TrEMBL record, chain A:
Keywords for this protein: ATP-binding, Kinase, Membrane, Nucleotide-binding, Phosphoprotein, Transferase, Transmembrane, Transmembrane helix, Two-component regulatory system
GO cellular component: membrane
Enzyme class: transferase
Any GO MF annotation of the entry: protein dimerization activity
Signal is among the record's keywords: no
Reaction catalysis annotation: ATP + protein L-histidine = ADP + protein N-phospho-L-histidine
Protein name (database record): histidine kinase
Keyword check for Membrane: yes
CDD domains cross-referenced by the UniProt entry: HATPase_UhpB-NarQ-NarX-like
Transmembrane segments: 23-48, 101-122, 157-180
SUPFAM superfamilies, sorted: ATPase domain of HSP90 chaperone/DNA topoisomerase II/histidine kinase (SSF55874)
Lineage summary: Bacteria, Bacillati, Actinomycetota, Actinomycetes, Micromonosporales
Composition bias type Gly residues, residue spans: 369-378
TrEMBL record, chain B:
Residue ranges of domain Response regulatory in the record: 2-122
Entry-annotated residues carrying 4-aspartylphosphate: 52
GO-annotated molecular function: DNA binding
Origin species: Actinorhabdospora filicis
Residue ranges crossing the lipid bilayer per the database entry: none
A Pfam family that the UniProt record links to this protein: GerE
Gene3D superfamilies noted in UniProt: 3.40.50.2300
Chain ranges of the HTH luxR-type domain: 144-215
Name used for this protein in its record: DNA-binding response regulator
Record keywords: DNA-binding, Phosphoprotein, Transcription, Transcription regulation
InterPro entries per record: CheY-like_superfamily, NreC/VraR/RcsB-like_REC, Sig_transdc_resp-reg_C-effctor, Sig_transdc_resp-reg_receiver, Tscrpt_reg_LuxR_C, WalR-like
Domain of life according to the entry: Bacteria
One Gene Ontology term from the biological process aspect of the record: phosphorelay signal transduction system
Length: 410, 217
């Protein structure tokens, strides 16, 4: 019952503010129409900039209200040049002006109507519930009516009215949140930037990150190829050469042959170690075995600087996201151990909705650079390839914070 | 025979030095990067250089470029290039200035010590040693209308051995045929590839490889 009450009261408060802006929009609409009329006889022309400022002021009021409700409605206006002529021309060709006007009409009429309906419903149902009291206090010939304009002329009708009142109140409880949301609809649709513009920016961003994906992918393949060719393969060639040498020495000088074979064996072991390292760098097996939580806590535990670990990651995430988060923490902790001279560090992982946030902090000397350091730079490419963001906050003198945010498409 | 080695992997450098010294070669020095290698060649005036293709700083074709530079600075220097994998263009770059005293082998061939030493001596004596893989790759990537299509299976075998740098007698022994038969095959190969016949091993290897590379562009 309590949450329902709170929900309704919140909705009514929202509706109250919304109806306020709607009333102002209604006045603004009337003012705009008046101004348009005055412009026809050219008296209004000098007043146009004030009209525009008033209209934008009202729209911004509503934008602020919407933002406080958690909707994103950035100001879409094109910047106005100086001078009456140029600024009016810009204002009139700006699609935002037209959309503001449309909002003025929609919110000033529709939004106001919605608000008035709800509040009259509230006040009328309260009056109906308290009808017996009114019947008792007010002279019968004062013309009391119910919500439906039926005359209240007896105790019976007053009592029945009191019983129907809660029904209307329940209706308010049920509908207020939806109506409050409906009242924001015009603002959400009309006061933000045109959808197409948003999409253009999004496409540009996706194109960029897609190129980054391909780059990161190619760079990764190149790295693996290098690691295999110059690492493990070279070791194995060395083993083959040493084995060949040992075979040649076998009859001539068995002692030397044994020494060479010893070297060859070491080479083979090194090749195995390199292969393990390459495999780990592609996709750490620990992720598969222990999940992101286990893998990250192992990383934190293995850090040279005492490191606390806190994580709230219910369930498994896509493999690529887990791997990126893992490498981000690995890279950040490597930097902590190598460069920061920190005495403590912390790793914090949270998941809110479809975003995974990984934060690594240390109390070291700071000065880490998200653009210069090749490790962090590589990480940035990897993170952006996943449509995520990397934030490095590391003033000289510390402390340092590295935060990676990844969409995890839940 | 005095040898200088250029190889950036320490284990392999050590292995090569050990192997060649044990076989009685005079290993005058071993370098891990192109600059040191070229300085070593200037200083020690070796008869032969063993060079790895991938070396610092970019680990791409530094070895090939170092080998070509060393040959330009010291005409008559025999060069045996070792590579982790076969790359047709590397062979062509090497052979651009003639095929005598040039070798291009896969690294792992070194483990087959006898064959490796034979190739090494052949190159030092003025011959050629091209890895069979190079020829195999040529066959693998041939296109329709490629002159290689016209060769019979036996002729391909002969071409591969020829590219490795073997002479007619050695090829005949390997294939269990008479030297005369090999001679006939080689004449057929040159005719099919429309090349002037040449009896000198290095010349004909170069001619064949350059021709094949050319028809592929």
């Amino acid at each position: 019952m309590k949450p329902l009450l709170r929900r309704t009261l919140t909705a009514l408060a929202t509706l109250g503010r919304g109806t306020g802006t709607a009333f102002l929009a209604y006045l603004g609409l009337a003012g705009t129409l008046l101004l348009a009329g005055l412009c026809l006889i050219s008296v209004g022309l000098p007043l146009l900039p004030y009209g525009l400022r008033l209209q934008r002021g009202l729209a911004n009021l509503e934008r602020r209200r919407l933002r406080r409700l958690g909707y994103e409605v950035p100001e879409p206006y094109a910047p106005l040049p100086h001078g009456w002529g140029p600024s009016m021309r810009t204002a009139f060709t700006d699609p935002a002006t037209r959309r503001d006007l449309a909002w003025l009409a929609a919110h000033g009429i529709g939004g106001l109507a919605l608000g008035l309906i709800v509040f009259s419903l509230v006040s009328n149902s309260i009056r109906d519930i308290t009808m017996p009291l009114w019947w008792y206090l007010i002279p019968p010939d004062a013309g009391l009516t119910t919500m439906w304009d039926a005359p209240v002329d007896s105790w019976d009708i007053a009592a029945v009215t009191a019983l129907t009142g809660p029904v209307w109140l329940l209706l308010v409880f049920a509908l207020a949140p939806a109506i409050a949301r409906g009242q924001t609809y015009a603002g959400r649709r009309l006061l933000g930037p045109v959808d197409g513009m948003d999409l253009t920016a999004r496409v540009a961003q996706l194109t960029r990150t897609r190129a980054a994906v391909l780059d990161a992918h190619t760079a990764e393949l190149r790295r693996i190829e290098r690691a295999l060719h110059d690492g493990a393969q070279n070791r194995l060639v060395g083993v083959a050469v040493l084995t060949g040498a040992a075979r040649r020495a076998l009859t001539r000088d068995p002692a030397t042959a044994d020494a060479i074979l010893e070297r060859a064996q070491t080479g083979a072991e090194e090749a195995l170690a390199e292969l393990r390292a390459v495999v780990r760098s592609i996709l750490p097996p620990v992720l598969e075995q222990r999940g992101l939580h286990g893998a990250l806590s192992a990383l934190a535990a293995g850090c040279a600087v005492p490191c606390t670990f806190e994580a709230d990651i219910p369930g498994r995430l896509p493999t690529s996201v887990e791997a990126t988060a893992y490498f981000a923490v690995a890279e950040a902790l490597t930097n902590v151990s190598k460069h920061s001279r920190a005495t403590t560090a912390s790793v914090e992982v949270t998941r809110t909705g479809d975003r995974l946030t990984v934060t690594v902090r240390d109390d070291g000397k700071g000065g880490a650079d998200g653009d210069g350091g090749s490790g962090l730079n590589g990480l940035k490419g990897r993170v952006e390839a996943h449509d995520g963001t990397l934030l490095v906050d590391s003033p000289r003198g510390g402390p340092t914070m590295v935060r990676v945010e990844l969409p995890c498409g839940s | 025979m005095r040898i200088v080695i250029a190889e950036d992997d320490a284990l392999l450098r050590e292995g090569l030095t050990l192997l060649l010294s044990a076989e009685g070669f005079d290993v005058a020095g071993a370098a891990g990067d192109p600059e040191t290698f070229l300085a070593l060649v200037d200083e020690k005036k070796p008869d032969l250089a063993v060079v790895d293709v991938r070396m610092p700083p970019t680990h791409t074709d530094e070895g090939i470029r170092a080998a070509v530079a060393a040959r330009r600075a010291h005409p008559g220097l025999a060069v045996l290039v070792l590579s982790a994998y076969v790359e047709q263009s590397f062979a062509t770059d090497l052979l651009a200035d003639g095929a005598d005293k040039i070798g291009y082998l896969l690294k792992e061939r070194v483990g087959r010590v006898e064959a490796f030493l034979a190739a090494l001596r052949r190159v030092a004596d003025g011959g050629t040693a091209i890895d069979p893989e190079v020829i195999a790759q040529l066959f693998a990537t041939r296109r329709a209308g490629d002159p290689l299509e016209r060769l019979s299976a036996r002729e391909r075998e002969v071409l591969t051995l020829m590219a490795e740098g073997l002479g007619n007698t050695a090829i005949a022994e390997k294939l269990f045929v008479t030297p005369n038969a090999v001679h006939k095959h080689i004449r057929a190969i040159f005719a099919k590839l429309e090349l002037p016949p040449d009896e000198r091993v290095d010349r004909r290897v170069a001619a064949v490889l350059r021709h094949l590379e050319g028809t592929r562009r």
